[in-house]
Amino acid sequence: MNGFRGDSALSDIELEETLSKRSLNQSVVSRLLPLIAPVWRPIAAVIGIELVQVLAIFARPLLIGLVIDRGLRQAGVDAPLIAWACAGLAATWGIRFALGGLSQYCAGLAAIRVLNDLRTRVFAHVQRLSVGYFDRTKAGRIIARADRDLDTLEPLLIQGPPEFLSAVLRLCLSGFLLWLIAPALLAGLAAVVPVLVAATFLFKRVAQRSWASVAENRSRFTAHLVETVAAVRLIKQSGRDRENLAKYQGLLEDFNSSLIFGSVRSGWFAPFTGLLTTAGLALTLVVGGRGLALGTLTLGELTQSLFYVFLFLAPLQEFSDLFERFANGTACAQRIFLLLDTEPEIADAPDALIPPLVEGRIEFRDVSFGYRPGQPVIRGLSLTIEPGEVLAIVGPTGHGKSTLVQLLTRFYDVDEGAVLLDGQDIRSFAERSLRSHIGVVLQDNVLFGGTVLDNLRLARPDASDEHLVTASEHIGAHDVLSALPHGYATQVGPLGSQLSQGQRQLVCLVRAYLADPSVLVLDEATSAVDVSTERRIQQALRVLCEGRTALIIAHRLETIRSAHRIAVIENGQVAEIGNHAALIARGGHYAALHASYEQAAGLDRTNAAPGEPLPAIANAAS
Ligand SMILES: Nc1ncnc2c1ncn2[C@@H]1O[C@H](COP(=O)(O)OP(=O)(O)OP(=O)(O)O)[C@@H](O)[C@H]1O
After folding, report:
1. Could you tell me the distance, in angstroms and rounded to a whole number, from the CA of residue 422 to the centre of ligand 1?
2. pLDDT of residue 618
3. Residue 467: in which H helix or E strand, if any?
């Protein structure tokens, strides 16, 4: 066995259960049926077609029995009857071919609609979930739900009901016809049925558990694949490829074992029904042979009965496949419902405010917050930023600076106290409206695939190209962006990976400028860019902050010095606040932070090659 494993499967699914506040083992059938309600017409058509097909199938033994008993008499052959019977047989096969295609078409139509609706629902739901959910759930698990698990539902939801109905119909009709020919024939077969019903029930319970474990293990290796793709650089850099591959192989092994175990457990059902079929046939031959000898049964009727025995027992075998599909599909459906049942932690109140404009006064009022219960990150913090004021936030790493931004943009809700915008608790705003008034440019700027212009247009969907370029000129980013290989038409690559960090930041600054929010939140990049890009970014920042309330997690001395006030955050509290001169004069935390920065900058200046940028303050402070 491979030594590398991820977290236990149990803990993953338990976490999802906790997040959705529901348990996995609830009945899903009642929840699956409403899904197919909108496509009842094509499904009804499939059922109708199945009915006609069943009738066509049952016509065959009747016609054959007729030929044997009436067409081939000792007195002579009834040629016209045989010809009509042959034509009838040909017609039943004609119907089978013609309707087979039509049935597939209708089932496909229904499948496309149901799965499309469900996919859209899952996608929309995933987008609605709060940031906290994504912090705790592996991306691959979500992908497994929305992709593979959903595919598994198709054979259950669409082909399942008509096939099940057809099987039940064939079973009942053949039983009835056997009873009509000779009740003793049906009585012989009836002995088989209770055994089969009991076995099917047992099989369903066992198989569902096995397939749930298969679905779980599949999401775990998909999750690992997605994590590897996202962290490919880190894996390469740290030389962990082999260990990472070994972990993947371990997860695959778990998946394969559960698959084999599931298949072995399901595998006994088919031979078991095969055994029952043989027993049923043997019984019919014994009872029918005796009837023939006693003259209570004609040869045609016995032949007909043999057909009916097959038609009676074949559906019993089909049930094995149908129940396997049912077990597999419901195991996946349970997981999809678990995701759909997870309510976003942050949601709009019914009377949420949608103010068209805000002034931009921000207040953190006695705020306490922690990502995990009992582990506060922000502790009773109070801070007010007036409209149009630029506040730089500094402080040691991990003390809660970025968390303040998360709270202001309401990616998380405070545990105690309140964050206010223009005197209103931000929890009373509609999420969309709140975020439309707050522009955010973070350190790890992510761009959407497409061109630079496409990315700028996200902020102003109706703006012309000229308008977008003018905004870029205004903010001082034009020289850099127009110098890209295809200028503004340059493809930025997945998540903007084909642009440099400085270029990405400039695109985001132009985007924020175009969005024209009243409040601006900036997390300055800590890593260095070249001096000219650095100047451009600083200039863009100045233009961007004009006339807006700005909260900047500042790492650069220039940004800090030009801010109206500076707040030093330590241990989730405001340790000091004031302007640069006042804080230096005070000789406290900020003065110490500044001195260490100056020292590092001095050292760096002596060591730096011409053209290299100055170090960021966070580097100096930490
Ligand atoms: N999503 C999260 N889930 C759990 N804990 C988190 C999360 N984000 C941050 N933390 C924790 O909260 C604390 C504060 O983090 P925060 O990002 O606010 O610090 P910071 O002052 O901005 O640090 P830096 O200067 O390094 O960016 C840290 O201890 C961090 O480990």
Report:
1. 27
2. 42
3. helix 465-475
Nearest CA to ligand 1 atom 7: 371
Are 146 and 320 in contact by the 8 Å Cβ rule? The answer is no
Rounded to an integer, the average pLDDT of 325-354 is: 84
| pLDDT value of position 549 | 94
For residues 312 and 211, which has the higher predicted lDDT (pLDDT)?
312
CB 368 within 8 A of CB 417: yes
CATH for 362-621, options being 3.20.20.70, 3.50.50.60, 3.40.190.10, 3.40.50.300: 3.40.50.300
Please state, as a whole number, how many other Cβ atoms lie within 10 Å of the Cβ of residue 243: 13
Say what the pLDDT of residue 593 is: 82
Going from the Cα of 452 to the center of ligand 1, the distance in angstroms, rounded, reads 31
- Work out which ligand 1 atom sits closest to the CA atom of 400: 18
Q: Which residue type, as a one-letter code, is found at position 9?
A: A
Q: Which residue's CA is minimally distant from atom 28 of ligand 1?
A: 398
The CATH superfamily label for domain 20-341 reads: ABC transporter type 1, transmembrane domain (1.20.1560.10)
Q: What pLDDT, in 10s, does the model give residues 181-197?
A: 888 778 877 777 778 77
Q: Contact 371/363 with Cβ under 8 angstroms?
A: no
Report pLDDT digits (tens) over 44-94. Answer: 898 889 889 888 888 888 888 888 877 777 677 778 888 898 999 999 888
Cβ of 377 below 6 Å from ligand 1: yes
> 399 CA distance to ligand 1 centroid (A)?
7
User: Do residues 368 and 416 touch, judged by C-beta distance below 8 A?
Assistant: yes
ipTM: 0.96
Q: Is the CB of 65 under 6 A from ligand 1?
A: no
Is the Cβ–Cβ distance between 394 and 567 less than 8 Å?
Answer: yes
- The string of pLDDT tens digits covering residues 217-268 is 888 888 888 888 877 777 777 777 888 888 889 888 988 888 888 777 767 7
Delimit the domains of the chain by residue range: 20-341, 362-621
> Does any ligand 1 atom lie closer than 6 A to the CB of residue 196?
no
Q: What are phi and psi of 497, to 5 degrees?
A: -65, -15
From residue 177, give the alpha-carbon distance in Å to each of 147, 182, 291, 292.
45, 9, 16, 18
371 close to ligand 1 (CB < 6 Angstrom): yes
Q: Is 527 in the pocket of ligand 1 (CB under 6 A)?
A: no
Strands of the sheet containing 390-394, edge to edge, are 438-441, 519-523, 549-553, 390-394, 565-570, 573-578
